[in-house]
Each structure stands twice: as C-alpha cells, then as structure tokens.
Amino acid sequence: MTQFYAVFSFVLFFIFAVFADSFHPKTRRNVLIATCVVLTFMVGMRNPHVWSDTSAYVSTFLSTHGLLDYTGEDRPLGYGEMGFFYLTVLIKTFTGNYHIFLTVVSAITFYFLYKCFDKYSVYPFLAVAIYLSRFYCGRNMTQIRAALSIAIVIYFTFLLPDNKKRWWYLLVIFIAYHIHNSAVIALPLFLLRNYKIKSEFIVCGVIVSLILASTYGSTVKAWVQSTPFIMDMGGDYLREGSSKAFGNDLSNPVIWYQIFVLLAFTFYEKRLKELTPFYYLMRNGYFYCTCILIVMCQYAIVAARCSTIFATFEIAMVPLLVNVLGKKNRAFVYVVLAVPYIILFALNWSPHYS
Length: 354
Hints:
This protein is an all-alpha fold. The chain contains 18 helices and no strands.
C-alpha cells in the first residue's frame, strides 16, 4: 500500500471514529472487536520484506524447529530475547506458515490492546485512531516483540492500583522483559504508582529536561555510552558510526506533541481526576517517559523505544481530554485532532525494502 492510500485510509477511519464512538455500547464493542481483528490480519498478511525487522523474525521462524523436534541448538536471528523465541518455537510446532506466525503474535498483542481500548478509554475508536497514528507502524508492522511486550505491560499497569494484584505487575515485567528487554523501563512506575506528583514539579521537570538536552547533550551522550546496561540493551543504536545510530534534536515534533499532551493533562487535573481512578498513574508514567524522550533526543531510535511504553497511555489520556474539553462539540474536536494525527501517521508509515 502506498503512503497516499495508507494516509487516505487513516483519514477515512478517523471520520468513522467520530460516528463509531456514538454507537450503542454493545454495537460499539462488536465493531471494536471486528476492527481489532482486521488490524490483526493486516499485520499477519503483510510482506515481511517491506517492513524493517520483520524479515529477521520470519527467518528465525523458518529456520527453527517446533517443540517435537527442538534440540536446544536453534537460536534467534537478529535478537536475543529467548522468551519471544520460545513463543516462536511453540507456534512452529503447529504450523510452518510465517503469515500464521505473524498473525498469532498480532492476535495476542491486539487481545491486550482491545482490553485497554474497551475498558480504559472513554472513546475507544479515537483510542484506536491514536494507536494507529502513533504506534501501529513502528511496533506492530516492524518491532513485533516490542508491540507484544508493551501491550501486555500496559494492560497490567492498569491493575497496579489494586493492592491485591499489584505484585502481578512485577511478574509481568519479568515475562515482558524476555520478550523485549525495553520492558525493564516500566519498573519505576511500580514505585511511583501511589504518588501524586505535583503539577509544579512536572512543569519544572520538563524545563530541566529541555535544559539538559539542549545544553548538556554531550554529557548525556557520554554517560549513555559509558553505561553497560544501556549499551547492552541498544548498542546498535548507540555506537558511533553505526548505520542505525542516527540522532535528532529538540526539533523533533513528537517531543513537543508529548509535552503539549502532558501539560494539558496536568492543567485539567481537577476535572480529569474525577473521571478516572488511573489519573495519577497515567500522568506519572507519561511524565516519566516524556522526560526520557527529551533527555535522550540525540538518540532518536533509542529515545523513542525507551519512552514509547508509557506514551501508550495516550489511548486513554487524549480521549479523557476530549471528554473534558469538547463533550458537546466532540465532532469538531475530532476534526482538530485529526490534523496532528494524520501528520504523525504519514511520518510513521515507512515501509521499505531491506
């Protein structure tokens, strides 16, 4: 699909979302399920040679054996997390078709995403549109390990306020880490789950992060390259001279987009906290990931991957803001929101032959 047709399809979906979020709850849920099924098969049926990283997953799937023939000598190609590899081996036990493999991984991912869209978003179809714009291309169509890991983590993050289930979060982080090691970034939220970070601190935190990124960028760069854990997690994207280690600066539009969402969500604290019990949980996580995105802006790919986990909270945060700002004029607010999300979708839609 060319970029023009992809963007055109996204625009049509955004228009559809305006009406779909007004459907009767039962009808809306059924249509939401159908939408997630369609998106699942779009991921599963894609050309693995067009989307970066996909060929590595397919090559591993085709070269490995199923459980009945597994000898322990098979190893993943292009990644090191054995949790995802063992999932690959399990799927290979039942089929040798790589499209089915990609579809199964996508189905598990969208199962958790559907739960989040349906249960935690005021306007689930707007949430789907936000996910398509911000994350679908970079995760589900390329980094399928990250997509699966993040979907699981986000779903269980919403269980943190329940003291009886909070320990499940640590177990889930452990499992998700073995699917994609960036999941370890989510650990600090376990400690921050009950804190109500003051709005003044959030504003100051953003300002300090901007100062660090703009003034002490070389210091941050040196610290990153001298930290073994970070280099182990993303060395290919950090080493000087690597073809993958391209950078960016504070002109990155996503940085300013996230700052705007964070400050808007903070400014309407009094009204938003009455609408959801997860207000501070989401704000803390989003603040944390936004600061990471700003400070590490010199490493565009690593900054995005380290900050993207809790950026996913946008699927709940932005619909809540719409509910506060334009409940009576929701269609108009959707039109306004369509502009940045269409631009972000166009920027993220990047199939290429590799």
